[in-house]
Amino acid sequence: MTVETPTPRTTRDDQHTEHIPFLADDGQYLTMLHVENPAITPTRGPVLLVHGAGVRAEIFRPPIPRTLVDALLDDGFDVWMLNWRASIDLEPVAWTLDDAAVYDYPAAVRLVRERTGADTVKAFVHCQGSTSFTMSAISGLLPDVSTIVTNAVSLHTVLPAGSRFKILGLAPTIERMSPTLSPRWGYMSEGPFSRLLRAWVTATHPECDNPVCAMVSFTYGSGHPALWAHRNIDAATHDWITGEFAGAPMTFFMQMRECVRAGHLVPAGTAPGVLPDLLARPRTDARFVFIAGEDNRCFLVESQQRSFDHFDALAPGKHALHRIPGYGHLDVIFGANAWRDTHPIIVDELRR
C-alpha cells in the first residue's frame, strides 16, 4: 500500500468532546458526543454521525492522521456522534433495527436540534446504523433530517454467497448456542462455543495474525478480510480495531436473515411506527446519497445500487450514488488514504 501524507493534523488533540447522556424514547440509555474544534466556528449546521452494529461512535475517529471528523470540522460542520443502542460503549441489550428506528434516532435528532437551535439536521450513517436510520426516515419518523449520506447498505440487502449461506443456514444454529455473536471472541472467550468458533475461524482466515480481524470477517461478511482491504489500512489502525469490535445480539441477526431472504429491509415488529412495507413511497423529503465501495464483501455494491435505483425512480434526479473503486466497507471511513479518496465525496454531498 502506498500511503500519501495528508495535511498534518493530530486527531483529537485540537478537539473538545462533550459527552452527553440522554434517553431514547423507550427509556434506553444512550450517549451523544459533541465534537468541536475551538479554533473553528461552525457555519454549516449540525451533522449526525451514526455507527454500525457492534462498534461505537469512535469508529469515526481512528488513529489516522486525518479523520472524517477532522474533514467535517474543517469544512464548518457542527459534529455530533451518536452511540445508539448497538454501541459497545453501552450496556449490551437485545435490539432490532425497528427499536433504533423508532426510539433512538428521533430522540437523537431532537437532542441535536434543541442544543443547536437548528431547524434541520444532516446525517452520515454507516451499515446497520444506515439500515435502521433509513427505516426511520422512510417511516416518517425523522422529518427534521434534510440530507442522509449512507454508506455500504440502506434499503436493500444483497450479500456475497458465503455470507448468505451463513445468515440463512447457520444463524438459527448459532442463536441456539449463544444470544450474541462477537468478534471480541478473538481474544476473550465467553464459554465453549466461543472458543470452538474462534479456533475454526482462525484456522480458515490465515490472512493475518489479528484474531479479531478474522472474527470480524466471519461475523459480518465473506472475505479475507471482509470489511476492509489490508492494503487500505495502516498498521496502527489494524491494531486499533482489536478493541473496537464486540458483540451484536442474535435478535438483530435473525431480523437481518429475513431482510436478506426478502432482498430488502423487513420490519421485526418490535416497535410501533415502522412502515410495514418499506418499499412504499418514503415518508420523508430528505435527499439520500448512497455510497458504496466496489470491493465491499459485507454487503455487495449492488445493495446501494438497488436502493439508489428505487429512490431515483420515485424522485428522478434528487438523489445521488457514488460507487468507489478500490474500497470496501469500513475502509471508506478509516482507510489510510480515505482523507483523499472518500472523505471529500462525503463532505461535498453533505454541503449540498
Automatic annotation (TrEMBL):
- Keyword check for Zinc, yes or no: no
Q: Which cofactor does it need?
A: FAD
Write down the InterPro entries for this protein, in alphabetical order: AB_hydrolase_1, AB_hydrolase_fold, Cholesterol_Oxidase
Report the superkingdom from the record: Bacteria
| Family the entry assigns | Belongs to the GMC oxidoreductase family.
Q: Which residues form a coiled coil?
A: none
Q: Which Pfam families match?
A: Abhydrolase_1
Q: Which UniProt keywords apply?
A: FAD, Flavoprotein, Hydrolase, Oxidoreductase
In the record, what terms sit under GO molecular function?
hydrolase activity; oxidoreductase activity
Which SUPFAM superfamilies does the record associate with it? alpha/beta-Hydrolases
What's this protein's name?
A: Alpha/beta fold hydrolase
**Keyword Ubl conjugation assigned:** no
Q: Which organism is it from?
A: Agromyces tardus
* Location of the AB hydrolase-1 domain: 46-133
